[in-house]
Design goal:
Layout (H helix, E strand, L loop, with lengths): L4 E4 L15 H14 L3 E5 L5 H10 L8 E7 L11 H8 L4 E7 L2 H8 L3 H17 L3 E7 L1 H7 L1 H14 L3 E6 L6 H11 L6 E6 L6 H10 L4 E4 L13 H10 L8 H4 L2 H12 L16 E2 L2 H9 L17 E2 L6 H11 L9 H16 L7 H11 L8 E11 L5 E11 L2 E9 L2 H13 L10 E9 L10 E8 L4 E8 L2 H24 L1
Parallel strand pairs: 1-2, 1-8, 2-3, 3-4, 4-5, 5-6, 6-7, 7-8, 9-10
Antiparallel strand pairs: 11-12, 12-13, 14-15, 15-16
Length: about 525
């Protein structure tokens, strides 16, 4: 089985994503996780370019990695300066790594307009830099920046830059589509042409500006590249880099090449979601292989076929990449998804049971009103159990009131009062909060915690509001989604009303009832 080397640049290129700012500890956590996945090379950043990267390389020296080699990244020497005197190269050498990736100019436009130097001096910069690194007993990778654009504009000169890196002792030359504008057929054609002259190992590094980064990376491997560079979840500047999650999936499952191995492949989804959490970025639901929707089925025809044969609407088994199959409950799904979900909950229903028909009608009616259960599976589970009379109320509402007061000093005060009945005991509590929903949540849990101490273990982690019909203005219905979590899991609930407080209350009650129900079932 052919091995393809995976080179991750999440910690450098990925850090250039709008909205991402890694701390040193964030970078270390991600590096450890990627080492566990079996990534071959981890590009840690550019030591000397900023204090954070310098701290990272100092800290990472103390950590033992099982699979990954840490790589420092930097540029060729400055023009008209000996490599031994260049402060950037000194910083790279002092980082203590055994591998350094150097980027240099392959496009004559950049040499003339950006470096403001001659084409020959640029070749000397590449040669001198790599030779200097090799003289320090450090292995060098060469990133040929803007190579494909340079080759299309001036193929002879672009090829000269690769030969300079090869002759200077580069271990691997990485061909970069830095602007992300090259199409797949061009990638294959150009790599095939240069392989006639360049004899060292080739790698590929592409950006996603035309939406073809993954396809271009796979095409490059098919054309002979042995190293693939990219980032977890495709993070990166502008439209991002090539997504290593999709690339690893394709290499292992489509091309039958080894990237991380079949055992580690099962950790791919977990790693993707871990990196998104540390990066404080929401994962794309429809991300190939690892997204929560990658194996989710909504249409009734699809679900019906999937129950009979999973090959009908899935390219691979979700477990191979650590993901799972989901049948979504909606008015489009028909009765099959209800039967599937009921079976997961240990209820054996038939398609023509009165309960199944009733549930299907309820879902259609509720979704017509604006509910959406595919994104609120906790509310859907409660709906099934209530319809099947397998749910006993934990409390009853006597009433609630929410007050928002704006004072002269422009401070806003929100206060909620809740009256409940738990068994035969009546409870009346009040709570202030940062907003009306926060106050209502606080008052509700304050009223219940003495009866159900386990509620102290949960908290709200996300809150989303969607106006369903903007044409009706302030009288429009709103749909509220609430995500809650405890030490073990998280769950989504939904509420719909013309009143945002009422919609929030519905979702809050479902959230708490779901938690209490799970605790009750666990104790059985």
């Amino acid at each position: 089985m052919r091995k393809v080397t995976i080179y991750d640049t999440t910690l450098r290129d990925g850090a250039q994503t709008e909205g991402i700012s890694f701390s040193v500890n964030d970078k270390i956590l991600i590096a450890k996780k990627l080492d566990g996945l079996g990534i071959d090379f981890l590009e840690g950043g550019w030591p000397g370019s900023n204090p954070k990267d310098l701290d990272f390389f100092n800290a990472i020296k103390k950590i033992r990695f099982k699979n990954s080699k840490i790589v420092a990244f930097g540029s060729t020497r400055r023009k008209d300066m000996p490599a031994s005197k260049d402060p950037i190269l000194k910083g790279l050498i002092s980082s203590g790594v055994k591998y350094i990736t150097i980027f240099g100019k392959s496009w004559d436009l950049h040499v003339k307009d950006v470096l403001k130097t001659s084409l020959d001096e640029n070749l000397r910069m590449i040669t001198d830099t790599i030779k200097f690194i090799r003289s320090k007993k450090i292995k060098a990778f060469y990133d040929a920046e803007h190579f494909f654009d340079g080759y299309k504009h001036n193929p002879k000169y672009a090829l000269k830059t690769l030969i300079a890196a090869q002759d200077a002792g580069a271990e691997c030359i990485i061909l970069c589509d830095t602007n992300g504008g090259t199409i797949t057929s061009e990638i294959k054609k150009i790599i095939s042409e240069i392989k006639e002259t360049v004899k060292v190992e080739l790698g590929i590094h592409v950006h996603n500006d035309n939406g073809m980064a993954v396809a271009n990376s796979i095409a490059a491997v098919e054309a002979g590249c042995t190293q693939v560079q990219g980032t977890i979840n495709g993070y990166g500047e502008r439209c991002g880099n090539a997504d290593l999650c999709a690339i690893i999936g394709c290499l292992e499952l489509k091309l039958k090449m080894k990237a991380v191995g079949s055992a580690k492949l099962k950790e791919l989804t977990e790693v993707s979601r871990y990196v998104s959490e540390v990066s404080n970025m929401k994962q794309q639901d429809n991300q190939p292989f690892v997204g929560t929707s990658a194996f989710a089925h909504k249409a009734g025809v699809h679900i019906n076929a999937m129950v009979k044969n999973v090959l009908t609407y899935e390219q691979i088994m979700p477990e191979t990449v650590g993901n799972k199959r989901r049948f979504l409950a909606s008015e489009l799904a028909g009765k099959t998804s209800i039967l599937f979900k009921a079976k997961q909950l240990s209820f054996d229903l038939a398609k023509n049971d009165k309960s199944t028909i009733k549930l299907h009608k309820q879902i259609q009616d509720l979704e017509y009103e604006g509910y959406q259960f595919e994104a609120a599976e906790a509310s859907f589970e409660l709906l099934i159990k209530k319809t099947l009379k397998k749910f006993k109320k934990f409390f009853e509402l006597d009433g609630f009131r929410v007050i928002v007061e704006k004072r002269q000093d422009n401070t806003l005060i929100s206060e909620a009062t809740v009256k409940l009945k738990v068994g035969k005991v009546r409870v009346h509590t009040a709570c202030e909060g940062d907003g009306p929903v926060n106050a209502l949540d606080g008052a509700l849990r304050k009223a219940l915690t003495d009866f159900y101490p386990e509620l102290s273990q949960m908290h709200l982690s996300d809150f989303k509001v969607r106006v369903l019909d903007s044409k009706t203005g302030t009288a429009a219905k709103v749909r509220v989604f609430i995500e809650s979590q405890d030490e073990k899991s998280s769950w989504w609930t939904v509420g719909v009303s013309e009143n945002i407080i009422e919609a929030s209350w519905q979702a809050l009650v479902d959230s708490i009832e779901y938690k209490l129900l799970k605790e009750k079932e666990t104790k059985k």
